[in-house]
Write a structure and sequence with these properties.
Layout (H helix, E strand, L loop, with lengths): L2 H16 L6 H12 L3 E2 L9 E3 L3 E9 L9 E3 L10 E7 L5 E8 H8 L6 E3 H5 L5 E2 L1 H8 L2
Parallel strand pairs: 3-5
Antiparallel strand pairs: 1-2, 2-3, 4-7, 5-6, 6-8
């Protein structure tokens, strides 16, 4: 297949994804979390809030696609401007093929206690999953991905 043919396929796939409200990995993670938590994905840019749910309130969604190879990179960055912008942080980790490796929601207060102690405002999936009040949502996010 030529590069031109591959780019035409890419354009077609992008159009199909737009019909599901997905432009990139971040949009995909937001759609999955909203469906998995029976919430509403908020449109546009909302300061610190991507999904609104009855159980978790305002949820900021972050994701990471693992790179090819053996390198394990599961950190996400939480901007300092996001302080007080959400009740929970959801982190979704994708394999290179965008299958769901893991997903967690963790309480805002616990996330910020950890993030504020670091040079960069980053938190890894494994750190978030060990915080008080964290809930593993991997199974329900995988179900949402298969819809």
């Amino acid at each position: 297949m030529t590069r031109r043919e591959l780019m035409c396929r890419l354009a077609s796939v992008r159009q199909d994804l737009r019909e599901h409200g997905i432009r990139d990995a971040a949009d995909y993670a937001e759609v999955l979390v909203a469906e998995a938590l029976t919430g509403e994905r908020l449109s546009g840019i909302n300061k610190g809030c991507d999904v609104l749910t009855a159980r978790y309130g305002r949820v900021e969604v972050k994701c990471r696609q693992l790179p090819p190879g053996d390198r394990l990179e599961e950190r996400v960055e939480v901007g300092s401007s996001k302080a007080d912008g959400f009740e929970f942080l959801a982190i979704v980790i994708f394999h290179t093929d965008f299958s769901v490796k893991a997903a967690v929601v963790a309480p805002y207060a616990e996330v910020w206690k950890l993030v504020e102690t670091q040079t960069y405002n980053r938190i890894s999936y494994s750190q978030a999953s060990k915080l008080d009040g964290a809930v593993d949502i991997t199974a329900v996010v995988r179900v949402a991905a298969d819809r």
